[in-house]
Amino acid sequence: MSAKICAISTGDLRYPTALAAIHDPPPTLWVRGGVDILRAPSVAIVGSRRASPYALEVAHRLGADLARRGVIVVSGMARGVDSAAHRGALDGGGATVAVFGCGVDVIYPPEHRALAERIVTCGALVSEFDPGMPPLKSNFPQRNRIISGLSLAVVVVEAAEGSGSLITADFALEQGRAVLAVPGNVLGGRNYGAHALLRDGAKLVECADDILEEITPGIGDWRLGISDAKEPRRPVLASQDPVVRSMDEGDAYDLDEIAERSGVDRVKLLPRLLELELAGAIGRVEGGRFVRFRRPC
Question: Fewer CB atoms < 10 Å away: N or C end of the chain?
Answer without folding.
Answer: C
